[in-house]
Amino acid sequence: MKTYTYPCDGYTEIEFTYRGGRTVASKRVTGGQSKLSAPLHLNHEDTLAFFLITMGGGFVEGEHYKTFITSHEKTHAIVASQAPTYVYKCNDGKTTVQDVKVKVAKDAVLEYLPDDVIPYGNSKYKQVTKIDVAKGGSLLYTDGITAGWSMNHKDFQYRYAHMVSKITYGGDLIFNDNLILDPHAFQMAELGLFEGYKNYSSLVVVDERVNAKLVEELQDFNNLSFPGAIMGISRLEGPALVIRVLGASLNSNRAILYRSIDWIRQKFYGLPHLDLRKDEAFDNALNAIG
Amino acid sequence: MSSMEGRTAKKEEYGEIEKNLEIFQVCDSTFPIGTFNHSYGMETYLRDGVVHDAPSFEKWLSIYLETQFKWGEGLAVKLTMEALDKGDYEKIWQIDRVLTLSAAALETRKGASLIAVQMIDLLIRLYGHLDAKEVEILREYRIRIREEKAFGNQAIAFALFMHMQGADFRQSVCYYSYSIVTTMVQNAVRAIPLGQKAGQDILHTIFGDIIELSSAIEDLDESYLGASVPGVELAQIRHETTVFRLFMS
């Protein structure tokens, strides 16, 4: 694997191609602080999977990261993160930026499942994720942000976070997810913002099998009370849906979303429970909600 | 036919007043476009017992105005008027698309579209006889919605009307906010319920918020269009699975 110098602090490019009856990573390029794991050995399945890795464990103030993921026809791959995205403190008021571009071809499946962002006290963060799913392509995409981390152990000590996800299907915009979190202007824990919860996570599913009936089935499947969390599911324009969760912790939110991810994986791809073998705390959270 | 035509009152002295009367009509909570059917997520808070009296309703209302409304419909009014000033009519359809597709909740998108259709139809009924560019665009908007080339949003229709009246964007943003707030207060009066006087107190207090949000919108560009915050949006999504309901969204 060749490492290039790019006009950014971390660069990742990965492409999946269908070759000889299976999915291969036909291109893997990283630069700067960004790395890719070796292919993961998952329990229960042999889907090709990688972790995105940031050296030093997080983004430093003013840094700019770029990630490109391309899934060509017929491939099925998982791109997750090894750990949450830490956005370290920002003393100079510089914004840390992450740009992500994802392409999913016809008959390809991409599960792009990064963990939530954890912004440190005083940090400023901007994330722009642009995803195009070709007609007949399939996408599972998670995203989220926590109340952050700070020296004084208080919540919402970061300066500003702006997270945008623009999702197109067959070239047409279907979802413009635009989240602005401004702890200087708002009481973040309050009504309308985090409602007393600490973590906000979401899952977007794009697949031509998503319709009103499927959304109702998924709503029924989630028609139970999740302790310490509220969640909702709605159909987006085009064959897509979104699940939002406000909850107490990164792991419990993820457990709620992964319950639905497993439901979708079983229904659409005939695959078992996704086990990325990350940590025990997550497994415990998942077991707690059954 | 304009109500001034064929009358003896002097056009230069009463022309401005007439335009204002016409604006009052469109901003009135009785202007029949169906906004009374929509709670913009407030009903979820009502069901959860979070909104249960005047102060808790006012809190929800000001957060809604300062966040999703400011970055959404409020900003859309300004952007639409700027597009009209520049003669960049294609931009209007782009604003419609981005604004609508920023709403994660299906009911929010559907509700906005239903209200927009009724507003456009009523504006064409009242002003369709005028030879104005804005009327022409309202007609095109209606056709685009019918042909599913546009979704429809009340804020955009309102901006077209206000531009036709010669209003600037500050007036337009503030008056549009007033029209939304007055309907929401009426909704709260019957749903929570609140006394009519308590409703008027809230309405009066919220004027300050409206001026603030209009002033903030002056500095916003279209990268903010459709932005939201977690709780406001999740309440709109969760409304979909609310069993007993007074409102459509």
Please describe the topology of this protein.
The complex is a heterodimer of chains A (290) and B (249).
Chain A: E1 10-19, E2 22-32, E3 34-36, E4 48-54, E5 58-59, E6 64-71, E7 76-81, E8 85-87, E9 95-104, E10 109-113, E11 117-119, E12 124-133, E13 138-146, E14 160-169, E15 172-181, E16 199-206, H1 212-221, E17 229-236, E18 240-247, H2 250-269, H3 280-289
Parallel strand pairs in A: 1-6, 4-7, 5-8, 6-9, 7-10, 8-11, 9-12, 10-13, 12-14
Antiparallel strand pairs in A: 1-2, 3-4, 13-16, 14-15, 16-18, 17-18
Helix pairs in contact in A: 2-3
Chain B: H1 11-27, H2 42-47, H3 54-86, H4 89-101, H5 106-127, H6 133-146, H7 154-164, H8 169-191, H9 196-217, H10 230-239
Helix pairs in contact in B: 3-4, 3-7, 3-8, 3-9, 5-6, 5-7, 6-7, 7-8, 8-9
Account of the 3D structure:
The complex is a heterodimer of chains A (290) and B (249). Chain A has 290 residues and is mostly beta strands. Chain A has one domain. Chain A is built from three helices and 18 strands. In chain A, the strands form three sheets. An eight-stranded mixed beta sheet of chain A has the order 3-4-7-10-13-16-18-17, with helices on one face. A seven-stranded mixed beta sheet of chain A has the order 2-1-6-9-12-14-15, with no helix packed on it. In chain A, strands 5-8-11 form a three-stranded parallel beta sheet, with no helix packed on it. Chain A is globular and about 55 Å long. The N and C termini of chain A lie far apart (42 Å). By secondary structure, chain B is an all-alpha fold. Chain B has one domain: Urease accessory protein UreF, CATH 1.10.4190.10. The radius of gyration of chain B is 18 Å and the shape is globular. The model of chain B has no long low-confidence stretch (mean pLDDT 95).
